[in-house]
Amino acid sequence: MTERRIIGDPAIVQEETLAQKKCGKRIGVVPTMGALHKGHLELIRRAKAECDFVVVTVFVNPVQFAPTEDLQKYPRTPEQDWELLKPMNVDIVFMPTEKEIYLAGYDTYVETGELSKRFEGKTRPAHFRGVATIVLKLMNIASPDAAFFGQKDYQQFCVVRKMAADLNLPVEIVACPTVREPDGLAMSSRNRYLSLEERKQAAAIPQSLKVAQNMRNAGVADAKEMRKNIQAVLETSPLAEIDYIAIADPLTLEEISVIPSMPQNLLSQQRGMRLLVPENPTPRAVVLLAVRFGKTRLIDNCLLY
Ligand code: PAF
After folding, report:
1. Which protein residue has the closest C-alpha to ligand 1 atom 9?
2. Is the Cβ atom of 131 under 6 angstroms away from ligand 1?
3. pLDDT tens readout for residues 16-57
4. Closest atom of ligand 1 relative to the 189 alpha carbon
5. Does 128 share its domain with 195?
6. Does residue 154 share a domain with residue 67?
7. Which residues are registered as beta bridge partners of 296?
8. Could you tell me the distance, in angstroms and rounded to a whole number, from the CA of residue 235 to the centre of ligand 1?
9. pTM for the model
10. Which structural domain, as residue segments, surrounds residue 102?
11. Residue 190 burial by CB count (10 A; 0-12/13-18/19+): exposed, middle or buried?
């Protein structure tokens, strides 16, 4: 791959984006770990619609994987990624090596707080420290005005948004709606690990979220009852092993027992806190779940209005 737009050296990306900023361009960044799919392409489309200069980063960040996790087998498909990226016409594809990102002796990490200890943080205690560290580095490298993340990783979005607010980063953190397969399964680079049978049964995840949304539309406010129904749908798949099902406040991620009829706080209206699609009102709750199918752990969520 010898294309002018692919850059590995952080200093070159930094120089180029700062120069573009000086010319008054709005810079957008789409951080990815590669193994690109339609979900990533949607993030890029959104970034291109909202920004004048778009940087897509492709880097499998070792710091967000625990030693027992799938870092070694995480799909790395740079050639295919480039084929997908070429027609998107982004301004820079930043594809650094591990050595270019973490120089010898690297020893500085972002310590994330309460938001990162729940749900994913329980199973993956060092995960969000790694995510926050790389995201902050990418922000410093590319100086974006906006950074685009998928709603599929809702907790990640919340942790990054909180870091940006707490550390006064001059960047808007934008979440884009989850892109789904025809049977509703959220697109994820990890879906390719699933066997045919696991893949078929994984459709129980979006089905269970649909049940939650239907219950909400029917006026159900009792989180326990909703959780029970979600669980019942997931249990129709013999291969599904539930890690967690949570119904939580969409901003603080604290678990709730009653879904409020009014949004609990208006934090989302603060700068840098644009929450999901602008046409949607503030959500009252988020349903978050993680389910294993064989060795593959899938996460998904939906917002309740
Ligand atoms: O969501 C991902 O792909 C990664 O966690 C991210 C945000 C690119 C950081 O490595």
Report:
1. 131
2. yes
3. 999 999 999 999 999 999 999 999 999 999 999 999 999 999
4. 3
5. no
6. yes
7. 293
8. 30
9. 0.94
10. 3-176
11. middle
